[in-house]
């Protein structure tokens, strides 16, 4: 039985093996057949695929598939086309406009667009209106770069610049003759020397300032900001700097040729300006002290408008100092070539106007007279019963001061609760004033918090340190003196430079969302308002360094970028530097312009990260001048 079972098992195994062999042979035959059929098809070429999208044909209704050898799989017989085929033709490429900004003629080397002598003749001489700002129309703008005079040299470094300036930079000797006996300026070979004298202080500004210091305290830090109306060559402001008092000096562009230009060349803050029919470009309650030394402003005329304007910009408790006519007229009437009656009348007019403003006359000693503005207006409102004029202004913004007409009303001080309180808030003494929270901030009137103020101060410390890593001239103390910040906000940039031997003109654009210039003055800094679609009231080559934070974003749809850059070029000294912060797209467009302005420029990443859209354009203006007089332009 066992042997029979073994037999059947062996037989069954043989049959299964035979069957498997049969199927294997059949499979090999079929595979070989299909392989040779594939070879035959490939030998006559692949069958084409009809591509109706690429070649529209009405007679093609189906597609067939080609067979390809295995080694040809990664070599496509046709390139695939993924582009759109239903679109408008592309417009022809438009080349970016490359501006042509050649040098101006040498006659424009001292051109100040908004104080042009020829244009001013079109305006009234009444009240010196013709000496106010009168800017060119758009079609009158120069599309060229103002040259430095032939032989121009880098100014002396501060403090030597206080006493010396190169003749080649300001080639005008008229004042050395006209003011010879008053020690304004002397000429010696290739340079000017400034002895520090003035019309009312021929012995020197230092002696004169010491005389003032015997009457009011100039040393305890309570007086930090000052304004000098009719400044001459700004020796008063120059010598006040030794007492940490920062003076804004201004004078018109008149027959005293180049007086403001001399001041700027000396490294002293100054602007071209005149008090005529519009407000001075400063906020209310800006200055601790105002000064006029024979400035020839008719203070008692026009219903006292000019003294009313001084009152607007003078801080509560601030001082007004007057020397020259009519002060001490008993002694000087013959020298001034005026009658005693005329001088007495002028003196009486000034005294009457000052009383109507509630000013107190502190003293008159020798050639000096000093008045003080009240700390608040509690008593002044009461005495309007006696003084019918001026009445207090109504519905006016006391800080608006850009082409704003002068008024014959008195700017009211902020309300106080008692007679001893300082209107607008008590200011800290200098230097604590720089970082103390300004009254306009802690009052909440601007919508800026104390935390915002502190953060802004720290932010600009960091940014200025970053600037100094790539601008070696900024890092080199003494290389720069005159600095411009075109959009200052809270003055953080200037505050970060306080330990450097520079002064900063802080500009708040009139288009800025918040008027913060009052805050800047409350910090003990100085500045002005400006519309950057117009030229600044200053001479060419005023500044060693210009800083512009988001300026071009503000003016993007207001005026041409190249016009603002040309103005920056006009007021920048040869080999001076520029740092511009803005959106990267704006800076890329800007660099195309600066590349034809003889500026060496590069775009640098934001100090936090290269991923920020805000970038920095750093540029240096190359040295070039007008040709020598005997050469063709």
UniProtKB/TrEMBL annotation:
Protein topology in the membrane: Single-pass type II membrane protein
Keywords, comma-separated and alphabetical: Glycoprotein, Membrane, Methyltransferase, Signal-anchor, Transferase, Transmembrane, Transmembrane helix
One GO CC term, this protein: endosome
InterPro entries the UniProt entry points to: Put_SAM_MeTrfase, SAM-dependent_MTases_sf
EC number: 2.1.1.-
Membrane-spanning residues: 21-40
Main subcellular location: endoplasmic reticulum
MF GO annotations: methyltransferase activity
One Gene Ontology term from the biological process aspect of the record: methylation
Protein name: Methyltransferase
Naturally occurring in which organism (per UniProt): Acer negundo
């Amino acid at each position: 039985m066992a042997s029979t079972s073994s037999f059947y098992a062996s037989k069954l195994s043989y049959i299964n093996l035979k069957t498997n062999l049969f199927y294997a042979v059949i499979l090999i035959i079929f595979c070989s057949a299909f392989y040779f059929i594939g070879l035959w098809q490939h030998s006559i070429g692949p069958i084409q695929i009809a591509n109706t999208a690429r070649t529209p044909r009405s007679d093609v209704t189906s597609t067939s598939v080609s067979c390809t050898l295995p080694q040809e799989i990664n070599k496509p017989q046709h390139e695939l086309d993924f582009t759109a085929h239903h679109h408008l033709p592309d417009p022809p490429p438009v080349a970016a406009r490359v501006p042509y900004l050649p040098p101006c003629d040498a006659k424009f080397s001292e051109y100040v667009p908004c104080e042009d002598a020829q244009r001013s003749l079109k305006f009234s001489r009444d009240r010196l209106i013709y000496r106010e700002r009168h800017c060119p129309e758009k079609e009158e703008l120069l599309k060229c770069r103002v040259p430095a005079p032939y032989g121009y040299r880098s100014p002396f470094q501060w403090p030597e610049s206080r006493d010396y300036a190169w003749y080649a930079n300001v080639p005008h000797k008229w004042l050395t003759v006209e003011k010879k006996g008053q020690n304004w300026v002397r000429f010696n070979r290739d340079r000017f020397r400034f002895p520090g004298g003035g019309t009312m202080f021929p012995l020197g500004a230092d002696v004169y300032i010491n005389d003032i210091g015997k009457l009011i305290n100039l040393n305890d830090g309570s007086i930090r900001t000052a304004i000098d109306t009719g400044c001459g060559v700004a020796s008063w402001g120059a010598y006040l700097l030794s007492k940490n008092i920062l003076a804004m000096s201004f004078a018109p562009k008149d027959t005293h040729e180049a007086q403001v230009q001399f001041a700027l060349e000396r490294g002293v803050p100054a602007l071209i300006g005149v008090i005529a029919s519009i407000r001075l470009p400063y906020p209310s309650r800006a200055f601790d002290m105002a000064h006029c030394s024979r400035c020839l402003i008719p203070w008692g005329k026009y219903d006292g408008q000019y003294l009313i304007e001084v009152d607007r910009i003078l801080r509560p408790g601030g001082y007004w100092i007057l020397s020259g006519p009519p002060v001490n007229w008993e002694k000087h009437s013959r020298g001034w070539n005026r009658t005693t009656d005329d001088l007495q009348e002028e003196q009486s007019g000034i005294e009457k106007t000052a009383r109507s403003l509630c000013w107190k006359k502190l003293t008159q000693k020798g050639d000096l007279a000093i008045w003080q503005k009240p700390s608040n207006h509690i008593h002044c409102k009461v005495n309007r019963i006696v003084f019918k004029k001026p009445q207090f202004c109504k519905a006016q913004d006391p800080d608006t001061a850009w082409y704003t007409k002068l008024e014959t009303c008195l700017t009211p001080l902020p309300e106080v609760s008692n007679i001893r309180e300082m209107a607008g808030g008590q200011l800290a003494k200098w230097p604590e004033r720089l970082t103390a929270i300004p009254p306009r901030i802690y009052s909440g009137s601007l919508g800026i918090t104390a935390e915002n103020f502190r953060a802004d101060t720290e932010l600009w410390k960091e940014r200025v340190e970053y600037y100094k890593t790539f601008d070696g001239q900024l890092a080199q103390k003494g290389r720069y003196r005159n600095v411009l910040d075109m959009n200052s906000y809270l003055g953080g940039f200037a505050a970060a430079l306080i330990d450097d031997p520079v002064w900063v003109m802080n500009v708040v654009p009139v288009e800025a969302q918040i008027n913060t210039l009052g805050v800047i003055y409350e910090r003990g800094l100085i500045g002005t308002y400006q519309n950057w679609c117009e030229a600044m009231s200053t001479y060419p080559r005023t500044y060693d360094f210009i800083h512009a934070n988001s300026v071009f974003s503000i003016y993007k749809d207001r005026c041409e970028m190249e016009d603002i850059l040309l103005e920056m070029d006009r007021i920048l000294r040869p080999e001076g530097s520029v740092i511009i912060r803005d959106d990267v797209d704006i800076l890329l467009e800007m660099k195309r312009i600066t590349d034809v302005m003889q500026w060496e420029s590069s775009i640098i990443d934001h100090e936090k990260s290269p991923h920020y859209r805000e970038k920095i354009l750093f540029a240096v203006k190359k040295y070039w001048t007008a040709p020598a007089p005997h050469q063709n332009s």
